[in-house]
């Protein structure tokens, strides 16, 4: 392949052959855009540089097999999602560092909510309850839950989604009483 791959065809070339050389061409053409998007969301140059490395490393090992119709828009979306997940993770870690679960009023405030949640969990269908418990409490992946319960990936996804909705409805009913 020639080094003069055009702006428009690099995505087609990589779809056919995601080799190291072609990924290098993609990096040369698009790393500055990924950096700019990451900098916009993260507001930190070092973090933005890390995101560029993380995204292109991930693409080298796991380039999607499905056809990408609009490469630039797809890469922008991947970068944006990656940055938002990074911010979400950092925010969760920050909240954990600044919460003291042993403070007396915190425990007293949580107790009624936990009791209500436990009661509501047993008001929803069993498969939904099992999926929610394994996903949120035991931190299992969809695939691990599917293996444990003998259900398909899509069934697990559906049970979790419906279970969350039914759990919310049960909690709202409890609050009305």
What's this model, at a glance?
The chain is mainly alpha-helical and 177 residues long. The protein has helices at 10-16, 20-42, 45-61, 71-97, 104-121, 126-137, 142-149, 153-176.
What layout of secondary structure does this protein have?
Blueprint: H1 10-16, H2 20-42, H3 45-61, H4 71-97, H5 104-121, H6 126-137, H7 142-149, H8 153-176
Helix pairs in contact: 1-2, 2-3, 2-4, 5-8, 6-8, 7-8
Question: What can you see in these coordinates?
Answer:
The protein has 177 residues and is an all-alpha fold. It has two domains: 88 residues, Orthogonal Bundle (Rna Polymerase Sigma Factor, Chain: A), CATH 1.10.1740; 73 residues, Orthogonal Bundle (Arc Repressor Mutant, subunit A), CATH 1.10.10.10. It is 77% helix and 0% strand. The chain contains eight helices and no strands. Helix 2 runs antiparallel to helix 3, helix 6 packs across helix 8 and helix 7 crosses helix 8. The longest helix is centred in the middle third of the chain and has 27 residues. It is elongated.
The third-level CATH topology of the largest domain is: Rna Polymerase Sigma Factor, Chain: A
CATH uppermost class of the largest domain: Mainly Alpha
Number of domains: 2
Given helix and strand content, the structural type is mainly alpha
Report helical residue fraction: over 70%
- What is the molecular shape? elongated
Instruction: Kindly estimate the percentage of residues that lie in beta strands according to DSSP.
Output: under 5%
Taking all residues together, what is the mean pLDDT? 81
What is the H/E string?
Answer: HHHHHHHH
Largest sheet: none
- CATH second-level architecture of the largest domain: Orthogonal Bundle
């Amino acid at each position: 392949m020639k080094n003069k791959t055009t702006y428009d065809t690099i995505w087609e070339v990589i779809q056919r052959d995601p080799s190291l050389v072609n990924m290098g061409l993609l990096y040369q053409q698009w790393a500055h855009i990924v950096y700019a998007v990451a900098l916009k969301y993260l507001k930190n140059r070092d973090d933005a540089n890390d995101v560029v490395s993380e995204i292109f490393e991930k693409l080298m090992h796991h380039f999607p097999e499905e056809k990408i119709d609009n490469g630039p828009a797809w890469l922008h979306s991947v970068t944006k999602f990656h940055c938002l997940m990074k911010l979400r993770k950092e925010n969760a870690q920050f909240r954990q560092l600044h919460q003291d679960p042993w403070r007396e009023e915190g425990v007293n405030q949580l107790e009624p909510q936990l009791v209500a949640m436990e009661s509501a969990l047993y008001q929803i269908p069993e498969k939904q309850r099992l999926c929610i418990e394994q996903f949120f409490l035991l931190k299992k992946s969809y695939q691990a839950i599917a293996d444990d319960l003998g259900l398909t990936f899509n069934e697990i996804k559906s049970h979790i989604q419906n279970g969350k909705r039914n759990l919310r409805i049960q909690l709202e009913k409890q609050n009305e009483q």
